[in-house]
Amino acid sequence: MASDLLTVTGTVYFRERITLPPDAIATIKLVDGEGEVLAATAIDSAAVPTEFTLVADAAFAADPASLFIWAALRSGAGTWGTTELVPVEDDANAVLLTKIESGPLPLAGE
Fold first, then answer.
1. 3-class DSSP assignment, residue 37
2. Which residues of the chain register pLDDT less than 70?
3. pTM
4. 77 with 60: CB under 8 angstroms?
């Protein structure tokens, strides 16, 4: 039933003014106050802000007031992410990402 679903929408962004390469991937997770992941998505991110939608089973969100967003954006130009969990706020979740490391990223096995 649709009423048993919890939907969280928003955008992830950063302040740097760069063009993202075509390999950019945004990963966003919805977590509860205990750190349990309730929903997650990974989406192509051609530009920022990048919109996201997370859908979780509402039965697993014991306290909807204690939900948080964790996010990261990885590309050949670098990695950005949340340095702390971001509290969920209604339908207008704008998640600021901070530069974590500069690209290029190592290949698997390196």
1. strand
2. 1-3, 102-110
3. 0.84
4. no
